[in-house]
Design brief:
163 residues, mainly alpha, 6 helices, 0% strand
Length: 163
């Protein structure tokens, strides 16, 4: 129960920060999503079922502020979080390099997927912006991945099997 409460508070707080404070730290108009950075890191560290849940919830929250294509972020976040959970199954999660490079790749891939979906809907967006957002997320992930890893190693965050 404590895990659910902590994840809910973190997800809502990061969504509020994404829409209120993070745009003030933009570089040439580009800024990362702290919520997406958190859920991808969380998905790499945990299993794919937890990744599916946080992907759906985070995508739904991001879609509340994404006027042109409701449901796009929910679908893309869900798919990429499950993919991150699968990638994380084969990684040494305590090391930083490969998870951070995975975050870079998945953030760039999210930009491409959103571009493709919106293109078919008929909404024009700039594809090259995903490169800048991915690089910005990569830089932030260098500092954020380890604290997220430590949070996921707390006793109340680890799922224990009871027989």
């Amino acid at each position: 129960m404590k895990k659910v409460v902590i994840l809910t508070i973190l997800i809502f707080a990061l969504e509020v920060l994404d829409n209120s404070m993070v745009p003030f730290f933009s570089v040439y108009g580009y800024y990362p999503s702290l919520l997406f950075l958190f859920v991808i890191s969380y998905s790499i560290i945990n299993d794919r079922w937890s990744a599916l849940k946080v992907g759906l919830i985070s995508g739904a929250l991001q879609d509340l502020f994404f006027i042109n294509g409701f449901g796009v972020n929910m679908l893309v976040n869900m798919l990429l979080c499950v993919l991150a959970g699968e990638i994380g199954r084969n990684l040494f999660k305590e090391k930083r390099l490969i998870p951070i490079l995975t975050i870079l790749g998945l953030t760039f891939f999210k930009g491409i997927l959103v571009y493709i979906i919106l293109y078919f809907i008929g909404i024009k967006v700039m594809l090259y912006s995903s490169v800048f957002v991915a690089i910005y997320s990569f830089v932030l992930a260098i500092f954020v991945y380890k604290p997220i890893y430590r949070l996921c190693q707390k006793p109340y965050m680890i799922k224990k099997w009871k027989f």
